[in-house]
């Protein structure tokens, strides 16, 4: 009976340590610099006239690396 109490106490202690140890993880430095760089004068309603984005994705499965690149472009011709 005492062995069961010791085991359950150990399991409960490990569970509590696991649950509460990840509570205060630091944020990624890149995320912090993006938030600090916001400009309050840019807040508002915006209409997209045109955009262009390059997207690259790299996947490695069983030692085979696959790189896929896409360029996404668009424009809104119905601007008021």
Write the layout of secondary structure elements.
Elements lengths: L1 H20 L7 H8 L13 E12 L2 E12 L5
Antiparallel strand pairs: 1-2
Protein name: Lipocalin-like domain-containing protein
Keywords: Signal
Q: Could you characterize what this model shows?
A:
With 80 residues, the chain is of the alpha+beta class. It has a domain at 48-80. Helix content is 35%, strand content 30%. It has helices at 2-21, 29-36, and strands at 50-61, 64-75. The protein has a two-stranded antiparallel ribbon. The longest helix has 20 residues, at 2-21. The protein is elongated, with a radius of gyration of 25 Å. The mean pLDDT is 76. Keywords: Signal. Residues 1-23 form the signal peptide.
